[in-house]
């Protein structure tokens, strides 16, 4: 595959770093977590055989810089960033969109706010926990994570967060400090993978302090999603059943009567099972 075309786009309060590869109708991939556009490295080239694939670093992460590094973040502004990329790269035609995790939340808002720009959306485990009947428990988890971040630092806060996601709910008490989700150092990483891991680690404080509390307190417009359900695919990882990121998508799929698509792997299946993930995503986008 040829190297992607790299660009920068000025938006309100930030400069977005994006990459484009392939040809055909536009497919925008919206990343979640702290990985940025690099989280799609395993599937972007595969998808570029059929689509013009656009990836980008969300504002404040990796190559996308904020004018004010201390600015508060919100879902609507992140969705507007995605809209600006769609307008730049596909000004005359609606695009297909895939969003994972917090990127799935961005994508859901984009769909409800600008449905004319989206032909089809696949949202993979968007943690919109406010739709759940036990939402107060998850608010308590987020508050504990923030308290731990302020009092004990990044890695204890990440352990608290990861344990809460694995449990699927707030059991209180146990902080999950022995969680198997703690980052594990690799003995030897290829240069590209090592650089990606370094960027992810650099993004973690911003992700945990600014993105997590804002995005996980977001409530989607369910009535609007129901109106647009014919272009929405809700998806989860087949190995993440019972975990917190799985539950909101499953809840919405039942509420909207859309069915729930299961991708290989868990919450990070696009990284752990890239070939199978890309194959299923291609089918979901065409259905």
From TrEMBL:
Pfam families for the chain: Abhydrolase_1
The AB hydrolase-1 domain covers which part of the protein? 25-132
Give the matching SUPFAM superfamilies: alpha/beta-Hydrolases (SSF53474)
Q: Which stretches of sequence are listed as region Disordered?
A: 165-192
Gene Ontology biological process terms from the UniProt entry: glycerolipid catabolic process
This entry's Gene Ontology molecular function terms read: triacylglycerol lipase activity
Q: Which PANTHER family match?
A: AB HYDROLASE-1 DOMAIN-CONTAINING PROTEIN, HYDROLASE, ALPHA/BETA FOLD FAMILY PROTEIN
Put simply, this protein is called AB hydrolase-1 domain-containing protein
Q: To which species is this protein native?
A: Streptomyces venezuelae (strain ATCC 10712 / CBS 650.69 / DSM 40230 / JCM 4526 / NBRC 13096 / PD 04745)
């Amino acid at each position: 595959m040829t190297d992607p075309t790299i660009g920068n786009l000025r938006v309100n309060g930030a400069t977005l770093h994006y990459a484009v590869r392939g040809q055909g109708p536009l497919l925008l991939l919206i990343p979640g977590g702290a990985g940025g556009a690099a989280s799609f490295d395993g599937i972007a080239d595969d998808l570029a055989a059929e689509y013009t694939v656009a990836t980008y670093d969300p504002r404040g992460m990796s190559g996308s810089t904020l004018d004010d590094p201390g600015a508060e973040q919100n879902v609507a502004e992140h969705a507007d960033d995605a809209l600006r990329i769609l307008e730049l790269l596909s000004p005359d035609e609606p695009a297909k969109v895939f969003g994972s995790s917090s990127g799935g939340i961005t994508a859901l808002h984009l769909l409800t706010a600008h449905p004319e720009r989206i032909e089809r959306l696949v949202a993979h485990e968007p943690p919109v926990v406010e739709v759940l009947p036990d939402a107060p428990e998850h608010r308590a988890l987020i508050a504990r994570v923030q308290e731990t971040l302020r009092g004990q630092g990044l890695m204890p806060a990440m352990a608290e967060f990861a344990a809460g996601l694995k449990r699927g709910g707030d059991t209180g008490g146990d902080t999950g400090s022995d969680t198997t989700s703690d980052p594990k150092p690799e003995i030897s990483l290829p240069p590209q993978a090592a650089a990606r891991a370094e960027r992810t680690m650099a993004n973690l404080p911003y992700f945990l302090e600014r993105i997590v509390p804002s995005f996980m307190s977001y409530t989607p417009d369910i009535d609007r999603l129901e109106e647009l359900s014919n272009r929405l695919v809700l998806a989860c990882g087949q190995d993440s059943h019972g975990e917190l990121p799985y539950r909101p998508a499953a809840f919405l799929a039942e509420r909207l009567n859309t069915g729930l698509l299961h991708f290989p792997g868990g919450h990070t299946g696009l990284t752990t099972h890239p070939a199978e993930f890309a194959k299923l995503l291609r089918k979901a986008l065409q259905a």
